[in-house]
Amino acid sequence: MTAAADNVEVTDVERDDPGERGRLQISRTVLRKIAEHAADQDPGSARTRRRIAGVGLGEQGASAQLSGPDDALRVRLDLALRYPAPLRETVASVRKRVGEELRRIADYRVRAIDVTVSALIPADAPARVE
Hints:
This protein has four helices and six strands. The chain has about 130 residues and is α+β, with helices and mostly antiparallel strands.
């Protein structure tokens, strides 16, 4: 059954520009996950095995920390890279990708991206069975 709405009144709120209706607040946790995912998607980044007391806990990718105001974020990344590869170019690629993704997805401006390379993983390392 369908009903036709002939006398639908449009309120002023519905006519307003969507940007003037309110503000979208994105959690820092979501921004951190976007940065980590973007860093992991770079072809030069690598995942490392996590171990505690000799027990394998799976793999981990990049980890990120965010600070600063919303209009000038500072991102600190800790990640492993494939080796041998031009490290300077790989880090520049990761920085660019993370900045672009935060801008594209969340519309946040990144002021600085600091990268710490915590491990170099051989690109042709065979998979190990644990």
